[in-house]
Amino acid sequence: MTLKKEDTGLSLLSREQLVELLQADFLLNSTLASDKVLESLMELVNRLLDAEASSLILIDERGERLFFRAAAGEKADQLSRFTLDAGKGIVGWVIGNAKPYLTDDVSSDPLWSQDISTRIGFPTRSLLCVPLLSRGTLIGAIEAINKKGGKGFGDSDVALLTALAPHAALAIENARLHTELERDNEKILEEIRLEHHIIGNSPRIAQLLDLIRKVTPSDSTLLIRGESGTGKELIARTIHYNSPRRGKPFTCVNCTLYSETLIESELFGHEQGSFTGASKRRIGRFEQADGGTVFLDEVGSVSPDAQLKLLRVLENREFERLGGSETIRVNVRVIAATNEDLESAIRSGRFREDLYYRLKVIEINAPALRELREDIPGLVTYFLHDLVQRMGRQVREVSPEAMSLLTSYRWPGNVRELKNTIERAVVLGSGSTLLPEHLPVEIRAMSHEKQGGPALKDAEREHILQVLEEANWNKSKAASMLGISRNRLDRKIVAYKITRAS
After folding, report:
1. Which region among 94-103, 454-463, 483-492 has the lowest average model confidence (pLDDT)?
2. What is the C-alpha to C-alpha distance for residues 281 and 272, in angstroms, rounded to an integer?
3. Residue 367, number of CB atoms within 10 A of its CB
4. Cβ atoms within 10 Å, residue 180
5. Looking at residues 424-439, what average pLDDT do you find?
6. Alpha carbons 397 and 419: distance in angstroms, whole number
7. Which of 40, 49, 265, 465 has the fewest CB atoms within 10 Å, measured from its CB?
8. Is-contact 498 465, C-beta < 8 A?
9. Whole-number pLDDT of residue 452
């Protein structure tokens, strides 16, 4: 049954219940940790109302779904997996009407939806549900389930839970703000860390950092170009986390990982039934990143249909989900990256010229490591110290001979390959000094042959074969171990005529 406002006043509470309510308020506001707040709240509801179970249901950001945020009592852990349509069941009615609801026999109540009760195997007899408002905005509901002893909930229970709800809402809001503050602080720390990840004092790095500082405050679309492993994503993250959008999501999509249908779904989302396997609606990356930044890595591999949709997003900041008709508008900054020759892709008809110019409002070129040889010692030192701290190893320095080899090598996999090489040396080496023998054979070959000489090629072939065997011929894993792209590895396997032993 629904309840009138005058039926839920404090006048129905006994002195003991008022004292308990004050104690509850103190407990709820004694911590800012959201999980502890919600855990304490549910335990309070069970204790104060002598209920077998209780749950807290909140509304999602779009107001379309209700989700169980916390619960206490039997089967509480299982409830965290469930969601409901916003208007479904008793809780949906309470949230839709902003009024409390009490029923002593749910089995005969027309509003009762037994889906969850049946699925988790928890019989519900009686239920009391009250709305939860924060600063005048409805954010969810609290429900108490099954009065102990087979009794039904009474007017005083309604009054107590209704009186508790504003205190609970305030505690939840305070915890939410505290969580957001912690998240903002973490992003600030990440921003500081990211600034120091672009390491180097060479003129080329100074030019790169100067360009990053200039483009960071704007919303201009960026195209970052460079070979695999040059840190294109790091540049994009640095720009985002130092920009006015730093408090919003940074969403990274590697476009090479998705088929033609899936890349559209990944970027723009899809509606239920829009293609085989689309069992429910999916929110795409652009929608998820509203207010923030979308980083499209290897944008040259995007399918023609997705290119057209992407062009529309860049022009109008709007799109439709796959299989949908609703136009969705977003406020995002797009940063794209590629190691591909897009001009050649345009000439061959694989990439739209109009999209190319929309992406290339500002172009940033990530330098190859061979262009930054004077920065290699600093990068080596940084990676070494970072890995030693994380792995607990004793390596503290690099021998002059090993450093000479590292600075002379051509680094086809760029910074990623350098980092993987130092990690390999730290793992396989011993003692406090990184020595030449801790380095891969193709790097050691530099001390005997000119770059590109026959001995180096033989050494590189041997090293690639060794890594492939270590990776059980999983080429993606081997490419990651080598610090190069899968495509580059495939080309080297063909060039060196590497085959798997039968």
Report:
1. 454-463
2. 5
3. 20
4. 11
5. 88
6. 15
7. 465
8. yes
9. 47
What is residue 244's three-state secondary structure? coil
Q: What are the tens digits of pLDDT across the range 324-364?
A: 888 999 999 999 999 999 999 999 999 999 999 999 999 99
Beta-strand runs (E) in 263-322: 293-297, 318-320
> How many angstroms separate the CA atoms of 433 and 435, rounded?
6
Give phi and psi for 343, each to the nearest 5: -60, -40
What is the rounded (10 degree) CA torsion for 345, 347, 351, 356?
100
pLDDT number for residue 187 = 60
Q: How would you classify residue 13: left for phi > 0, otherwise alpha for psi between -120 and 50, otherwise beta?
A: beta
How is residue 60 written in tokens? Answer: 């999602």
Q: How many degrees, rounded to 5, is the angle at CA 446 between CA 444 and CA 447? A: 80
Residues 6+ apart with CB under 8 A from 487: none
Beta carbons within 10 angstroms of residue 225's beta carbon: 18
d(CA 458, CA 452): 10
For residue 259 the two structure tokens come to 């088929």
What's the N-to-C CA distance of the chain in angstroms? 76
Dist CA 138 CA 143 (whole Å): 15
**Which residue, chain included where needed, has tokens 């990840």?**
197
Query: Once rounded to an integer, what is the mean pLDDT over residues 485-493?
Result: 83
d(CA 185, CA 324): 38
How many residues appear in the chain?
A: 502
- pLDDT value at 292 more than 80: yes
Answer CATH for 5-179 from 3.20.20.30, 3.30.450.40, 3.30.70.20, 3.40.30.10: 3.30.450.40
Higher pLDDT, 250 or 322: 250
Tokens of residue 66, six digits: 């209700």
| pLDDT score for 185 | 64
Sign of CA dihedral 159, 161, 163, 165: negative
This model's pTM is above 0.70: no
User: What amino acid is encoded at 480 in this protein?
Assistant: S
Q: Where do the domains of the chain lie?
A: 5-179, 196-365, 373-495
d(CA 234, CA 153): 58
**Structure tokens of 213?**
């500082």
| Closest alpha carbon to 102 in 115, 117, 88, 91 | 91
> Between the CA of residue 49 and those of 56, 58, 89, 112, 154, what are the distances in Å?
15, 21, 22, 21, 10
Question: Architecture of domain 373-495 in CATH?
Answer: Orthogonal Bundle (1.10)
Please say whether the dihedral angle defined by the alpha carbons of residues 292, 386, 391 and 372, taken in this order, is positive or negative: positive
Tokens of 464: 């690639």
Backbone angles phi, psi at 137, to 5 degrees: -105, 130
